[in-house]
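[Meeting: bench + compute handoff]

Bench side (C.D.) handed over the final construct sequence. Compute side (W.E.) agreed to return the predicted structure before the next meeting so the bench team could plan truncations. Sequence as handed over:
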Amino acid sequence: MKNKIIFAIVFVSMVVVEMLPVSVQAGGSHDHEISGHEMVQKENHQHAGEGSAVGKAGVEADATQTIQVVTKDSMRYVFSPEPDIKSGDIVTFIITNEGQVSHEFSIGDKSEQDTHRKMMQNMPDMVHEDGNTITVKPGETKKLTWNFSGIPKGSHDVIVACNIPGHFEAGMFHKMTISQQGVMTRTEKSKPDNEKHHDMDPHDH
């Protein structure tokens, strides 16, 4: 009799489990499902926070200087004051979008910008909120603090760019070079709308 009772309990338990949705049997995994876009976006944010060849994310409280940046639909950045940064400086950029479309403010070297631009071509609606890249919507003002440390010896380019499809190609980038002495000098600045960028051909990317 005792064995029959145990068998009945086991049988009922098995029936109940079979009737449960697959997601419940998997321990509620449906609550953690994310789309491929979200997964790539999350992964990108994690990579963005790991630093780059031209520095790493910094803390605003440690900033040695502050630079105001305006993004415009003419595909230009306007800096105030113009960047004058030494290796090791921690800079807080305050970015205001005065345009009618979203713009990015991304810091990296040529290789990093190339990689990011290719990714944005596949996912043009991706929004960035941390690391070396932020997305600023029309009318918004956001901050990005960057620590220009750990930069390799010798001359090394630093590029600020907007990699939303078509923006970089229209001239929305600002190229600077760090000399062997660690002083950052401006070699390319955002120019008036009727001028062309000659120092950096977007078709080379």
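W.E. noted at the follow-up: The chain is about 25% helix and 30% strand. C.D. will use this when planning the next construct.
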